[in-house]
Amino acid sequence: MGxxxxxxxxxxxxxxxxxxxxxxxxxxxxxxxxxxxxxxFIPRLVEDLGMVEDPRKPGYFAGYLTSAxxxxxxLTSIAWGAFADKYGRKPVAxxxxxxxxxxxxxxxxxEIYWLAVAIRLLNGLCDFMLGTTKMMLTELIEPYHQAxxxxxxxxxxxxxxIVGPTFGGLLARPAAKYPDWIAEDSLLGRY
Length: 191
Hints:
This protein is an all-alpha fold. It has helices spanning 5-8, 18-36, 42-48, 59-87, 89-108, 113-126, 129-140, 143-171, 174-177, 187-190.
């Protein structure tokens, strides 16, 4: 009977690296959260930005708005990987976190549909946390612990895919849902 791949690796050099795994998992969580938080309110946003009169027909424009971020990721994933190989993972992770945060904030204040699509595309162009965190994990964690760390990252992705839309749904049109706390003419009420 053959040995398992894990047994073939021998004993680990040290304890499981919880800190490194947690940092990579947070990057993975942020990436998935950023992608999915908009899902619940995209159809209403399309209506609010004046693209459709009939609330039953926002799907066409919602598709552009939703897929723009993924198109951006597709267009730049190879370039970000090459940049990370040349200049390091940390600069790529830093650029990604800062730029996706700024573009997500800009998206929240957008009042023009096609500008919202462009900002969402820019968000995807700047988002390479998925690839960066996977590269960092394989480089910073010894092979013995990598499978366990990867499973934690997969779990973080799954949790973010649940938490992101839930959070987005709770905050969609907050002035209508929470009139005692948020006024219509307040910052959260308008955007």
